[in-house]
Amino acid sequence: MSKSTSPYPMLSADGTGTGVVSHAGATVLLRTAEKTGLITGLSDALAPWRKPLATHDPGKIIADLAVAIAIGGDCLADINQLRADPAVFGQVASDPTVSRLISALAADAPAALTAINSVRAAARAVCWSAAGATAPDHDADSGDPLIIDLDATLVTAHSEKQDAAPTYKRGYGFHPLCAFVDHGSEGTGESLAIELRPGNAGANTAADHIAVTAAALEQLPRVRGYRVGKSVLVRTDSAGGTHEFLDYLTRRRLAYSVGFPLTESTAAAVDRIRPEAWTPAYDAEGVERDGAWVAELTGLIDLSGWPEGMRVIVRKERPHPGAQLRFTDRDGLRLTAFATNTSRGQLADLELRHRRRARCEDRVRNAKDCGLMNLPLHGFDQNRIWCAVVMLACDLIAWTQMLAFTDHPARRWEPKRLRHRVFSIAGKIARHARRTRLKLAAHAPHVDLLLHGIVRLAALPAPD
Prior knowledge:
By secondary structure, this protein is of the alpha+beta class. It contains 15 helices and 15 strands. The protein has helices spanning 27-35, 38-45, 58-70, 80-83, 86-89, 95-107, 109-131, 206-218, 243-251, 264-269, 347-355, 359-372, 380-404, 415-423, 447-459; strands spanning 20-21, 146-152, 155-156, 165-166, 172-174, 177-182, 189-195, 232-236, 255-259, 279-282, 288-296, 311-317, 334-340, 427-432, 435-440. It has a nine-stranded mixed beta sheet, sandwiched between helices. Strands 1-14-15 form a three-stranded antiparallel beta sheet, with no helix packed on it. Helix 1 packs across helix 13 (380-404), helix 8 (206-218) packs parallel to helix 9 and helix 12 (359-372) crosses helix 13. The radius of gyration is 25 Å and the shape is globular.
């Protein structure tokens, strides 16, 4: 036999291994689902859709789908990654059973979505209570509010799907509007609401922004009543800068930071700002940025018809090399503006807070990495159910980071990195003295992080 010249060891492979678990690291997601009450909540809420003498619980099927998506699945059939390891994931439904459940939920989509979303809200309350000082709403007030980011994205449809339509970018598919809660620079974020819309839905449709905001507020644990208060701030781009949407936010007494569209007359008013009124803008680290300034435009433009107390703040900066100026830019400087009803704070601080809505782009990317990239089903209501499962997957990952990886950089890792370093850790099932143990791979680089996370979750009290 000739000697191998490959730098890799020569192995003889066969398919006779038993007791091996390929995604043993996903057990941390299961423990999070249990500690937040998500499993029992889904079982109770979806009990009306369980047929007599059915073997599989609809709540567990939906939870299994969420876990399958969290570890990298992007269609219903990817639940087979869990089905292969019953010692860890229990009995997992067959593909036809999963498909029939999704169809049954889609047939009564409003009730099914209400049930799933109510469970998500209850589990979120348990998670945030257990997180304590690291919860997004800890000590939230008007000076340091909980932030809800709104943003829309395009989802391409590669086949004929119900209600798919041409998009403004000359594509074809859907145009969902999403809401996320921002965890700040120390964390990631959670998905609060996804409003699935046809591809030709308008970017600045106020009714859609109102519906998504209302759905997002229902997910917050401490929100009571219609008038929320300025401890919650809604942040979005200029698509949300409509009279109707800002009137809605004002009626609910929400704080807001919304992109303000510039017209030629509004841009011309910038010329009337006194030179000494401009103050240096901040970079992402809160340090003065060279070549960028902010000033208040409120008293120089006509804001009649807009909500009382609204302020307009404008930013001017030198454009990046190669950037093309717009007709609203002035004197070779790029102009952007936003509206807010926050009455206190330095202009540069308020502008930096608004600019940090760019973190919402990360949340959208993560959602697309968790099943939103390509809606796999044909029916519109079926894909609405799929979006609800996508949000469950996003929440499971965010809650796991919040509760299990609190003091580790993994708190900010995106799904792809978590899958590569944590969820994909392999293990082996060992049975001894009537007990089943999961032996995680000792050589895995991040096995200690996984074990520490499981111990942290085990120490949490069981949900009521």
